[in-house]
Every structure is written in structure tokens, then in C-alpha cells.
Write a structure and sequence with these properties.
This is Reverse transcriptase domain-containing protein. InterPro entries: DNA/RNA_pol_sf (IPR043502), GrpII_Intron_Splice-Mob/Def (IPR051083). It comes from Anaerovibrio slackiae. It is a single chain. This protein is α+β, with helices and mostly antiparallel strands. About 45% of the residues lie in helices and about 15% in strands. The protein has helices at about 5-20, 25-30, 35-45, 75-90, 110-125, 140-145, 145-155, 160-170, 185-190; strands spanning about 55-60, 65-70, 130-135, 205-210, 215-220. It has a three-stranded antiparallel β-sheet with strand order 3-5-4, covered by helices on one side. A two-stranded antiparallel sheet has the order 1-2. The model is unreliable at about 185-205 and about 205-210 (pLDDT under 50).
Length: about 220
């Protein structure tokens, strides 16, 4: 396993950040003092003083609904790119379902579109036009999942203490989002649990994940 705190890997994390947001003022300012910022970030990670900073908070209007977005600072984005690319993706990607196309090399939108078409053909070959597609979008997914369970699963496959401590700090900075933001109903932000899920009901024939969205196809509404 590579050292995500090495200067080389943090620099690669910065390059990844530039690809996404190189036009932004904050990214360009970070780049003006690049080596100083990289070594400062490296020191905080290695001596255990790293804490996720408070990024910008804004509202997007998406698919007819208001969505609260909390953007990472450049410093935190650099760290997370390095952490994911050097540690988490190599350690965890083999355990993901094949249809997970979220931010994985060789997958993405095109892969997900092809798999969706394959699922539709599978359903049509068996049921014809009879059937439904249920779209489930998990609001504030990472804020509201069981962080203790997530850490247990990651700890089974990643043993490095610096990595686990850093992940724990990132999760702690994003626990249950209970902020009251003007224009957004607090009830929509507090919980995303599927409280009325019945495990005894028949499972859908096909399920696929697109980022924090799930699509399920089934023959009848009741299933």
C-alpha cells in the first residue's frame, strides 16, 4: 500500500484537483504556494493534527428540488484525492458490485448508461413492457450512514493507523447534517433511512448503483 501522505502523492492529488477546478481562484491561490501548502498538509497528516476545514456552503436547484452542497477546500480535496487514489480505491474497489460506476477508472457515465440498457433488455426479454423502474436518491448519504459500521468494514481491509485516523476525522466532520438552511426543509436534511423497508418483501429483479442513486426494476409495483 502506498503512502498517501508522501509529497509525490499529494502533488498528484493537487493535479487531480486542478483538472476538476483549476479555473477557481482558491485552486490557483493554492498553486501559487504549492510546495509550502503540500508540506504543511503532509506535516499535519503525519503528526496527527489534520482536521477537515469548513468549506463553502451553497444551494443548488437540481431536478426541481433544492440541494444543500458543502464544497471541500482545496487543501482537503488534495488530501482526499491522494487518499482515494493510493489507498481506498486499490483496497476496496474489488469488493464493489460490478454495476457501481461511481468515480472508478474505466467506468463512469458511459459505463452506467450501457449497464442500464443491458438491464432494460434483460427485463424486456422476460416481462415485455410490463414493469416499473424505481429511482431512489439518498439525500446526505455519507452524513447519515452508520459511520461506526463503515469504519469496521474499512478496518477489515486497511490496517494503516494514519489512514484510519484520517478517515475518522473526515467522517466526524460530516456527521448528521442538522443545519437549518433558509429555503430547505430541515426534515428533508435530518435522516435518509429507509424506515419502512420490509426485508420480507420480494427483492427487485435488477438493482444498480449510480453514485448515491439506486435504480431497481421490478415486474409489479407491489414488489
Amino acid at each position: 500500500m502506498q503512502d498517501f501522505t508522501s509529497a509525490d502523492n499529494l502533488l498528484r492529488g493537487y493535479q487531480r484537483t486542478v483538472k476538476c477546478s483549476g479555473w477557481k481562484e482558491a485552486t490557483q491561490k493554492f498553486g501559487l504556494n504549492l510546495m509550502r501548502e503540500i508540506f504543511s498538509l503532509q506535516d499535519s497528516l503525519r503528526n496527527g493534527t489534520y482536521e477537515q476545514q469548513k468549506g463553502a456552503i451553497f444551494i443548488l436547484h437540481e431536478q426541481g428540488r433544492k440541494r444543500l452542497v458543502r464544497a471541500l477546500t482545496v487543501r482537503d480535496a488534495v488530501m482526499q484525492h491522494s487518499l482515494c487514489d493510493t489507498v481506498l480505491t486499490p483496497a476496496l474497489s474489488r469488493y464493489l458490485i460490478h454495476d457501481n460506476g461511481a468515480s472508478l477508472k474505466g467506468k463512469g457515465i458511459s459505463f452506467t448508461r450501457r449497464r442500464f440498457e443491458q438491464h432494460l433488455r434483460w427485463h424486456y426479454a422476460r416481462y415485455g413492457k410490463a414493469g416499473y423502474v424505481l429511482k431512489i436518491d439518498f439525500r446526505k448519504y455519507f452524513d447519515n450512514i452508520r459511520h461506526d459500521v463503515l469504519m469496521q468494514e474499512i478496518s477489515r481491509r486497511v490496517a494503516d493507523k494514519t489512514v484510519l485516523d484520517t478517515i475518522q476525522k473526515v467522517l466526524a466532520a460530516n456527521e448528521h447534517d442538522v443545519e437549518c438552511v433558509p429555503g430547505i426543509n430541515p426534515d428533508d436534511v435530518l435522516f435518509n433511512a429507509l424506515e419502512h423497508y420490509n426485508p420480507d418483501r420480494p427483492r427487485p429483479e435488477k438493482t444498480m448503483r449510480i453514485w448515491m442513486t439506486a435504480l431497481s426494476s421490478t415486474r409489479t409495483k407491489s414488489s
